[in-house]
Amino acid sequence: MKILFLVYHGFSPHSGISKKIHYQVKGLRENGHDVSLCHYGYAEDGHRCCYINDAVVKDFGTGVWAGMQQRIDYDCILDYCINEGIQFVYARCFQNANPWLIRFFRRLRKAGIKAVTEIPTYPYDGEFGNFNWKARLELKIDQLFREKLYREMNALVTFSDEERIFGQRTIRISNGVDFDSIPLHQPPLYLERAGGEALHLIGVAEVHSWHGYDRVMAGLGEYHGNRDIYFHVVGGVSPGRMDTVFSPIINKYGLQDKIIFHGQLFGEELTKVFNQCQFAIGSLGRHRSGITVIKTLKNREYATRGLPFIYSEQDSDFDEQPYVLKAPADESPIDMQQIVDFMDHFTMKPEEIRHTVEHLTWKIQMQRVLDGVASML
């Protein structure tokens, strides 16, 4: 099958989202499909461009008008789909529903080209509470047109358990993993001794309120046991969040030497920090944005590395796994003694944890999408 994977933004070599998209494309190709990747970005001369397989198919120029054209002109993509015999379009939601995008997908449908859109998180409206006015305005526009847009699709792809979203039927899959890109965890030697030395926790994210890392910090502050516990935060933290959320907790409890902010790390540097740690922190605040059920990418990456971890949402792939701790979906500090007790009796090896997610490869998950579309025809 000839497939176009459509992304409404550019890529960063260090972005988790960018890596995920490339792994999804790889998964489709591993299933024998001919996949082209369409995205937006900037040329060396600063022009906004639409690319397909790294070739420019539309140069929008520069300035405000170029930015507007990028949001309303999809003729170049439509022409490519028709001329190249594309049979299926897999798009990734960018909260950008508008009349021009509706027209594009309607014309795809009339041309006999099947289409789905992936909704990475649902519901997502609650995530915009602390965003700037421009992002909130774009959300309002999306809210006006999204149901009409998704009526032009064959289905929506979701990582939730919802059977219908915005009036459209769904194909429910899990976030996937790429085993080739995630090394197996090499734990510190002292982990072999129950009741061992310092316990190192790691959380990897571009930090937002829904990650709930403040709950971990508060839990560290209220822990009075005899174990030294450290929390390694890897990823970007906005100055506003640091000043208004994290610093007050750190100062209140005197945690300056217990919380280590590494910033963004990648490749071997990231693996080195992972290998210093024994336990990982998933999302602990999804309830803050109104999400109860979600299959986050981070949980799957932790399991693929082979680390035990904690989270607070509902995730059917992991809720009953022996290497998982579930935290309450509320504002209470995380109970550090519970983690200490859990780790003192934890015996699973990294390779055993990794084995439990072999069915979550992107090859398998993306084939589920294609099977789901075929079953609806």
Mean pLDDT: 94
Helix-strand sequence? EHEEEHHEHEHEEEEHEHEHEHEEHHH
Strand order of the largest sheet: 4-3-2-1-5-6-7-9-8
Distance N terminus to C terminus? Answer: 15 Å
By helix and strand content, what is the structural category?
A: alpha/beta
Strand elements, count: 15
Helix proportion range: 25-40%
User: How much β-strand is present in the residues?
Assistant: 15-25%
> Whole-number radius of gyration?
22 Å
Count of DSSP-assigned helices: 12
So what's the overall shape?
A: globular
* Biggest sheet descriptor: 9 strands, mixed
- pLDDT below 50 for ≥5 consecutive residues: which ranges? 190-195
Report on the architecture of this protein.
Helix content is 36%, strand content 20%. It has twelve helices and 15 strands. The protein has helices spanning 16-30, 63-72, 75-83, 99-110, 133-150, 213-222, 239-253, 267-274, 297-305, 336-344, 350-355, 362-376, and strands spanning 2-6, 34-42, 48-52, 55-61, 88-92, 114-119, 155-158, 164-165, 168-172, 199-204, 229-234, 259-263, 279-281, 309-311, 324-326. Strands 4-3-2-1-5-6-7-9-8 form a nine-stranded mixed beta sheet. A hairpin with a 2-residue loop joins strand 8 (164-165) and strand 9 (168-172). Helix 1 packs across helix 12. The longest helix has 18 residues, at 133-150.
Please give the structural blueprint:
Layout: E1 2-6, H1 16-30, E2 34-42, E3 48-52, E4 55-61, H2 63-72, H3 75-83, E5 88-92, H4 99-110, E6 114-119, H5 133-150, E7 155-158, E8 164-165, E9 168-172, E10 199-204, H6 213-222, E11 229-234, H7 239-253, E12 259-263, H8 267-274, E13 279-281, H9 297-305, E14 309-311, E15 324-326, H10 336-344, H11 350-355, H12 362-376
Parallel strand pairs: 1-2, 1-5, 5-6, 6-7, 7-9, 10-11, 10-13, 11-12, 13-14, 14-15
Antiparallel strand pairs: 2-3, 3-4, 8-9
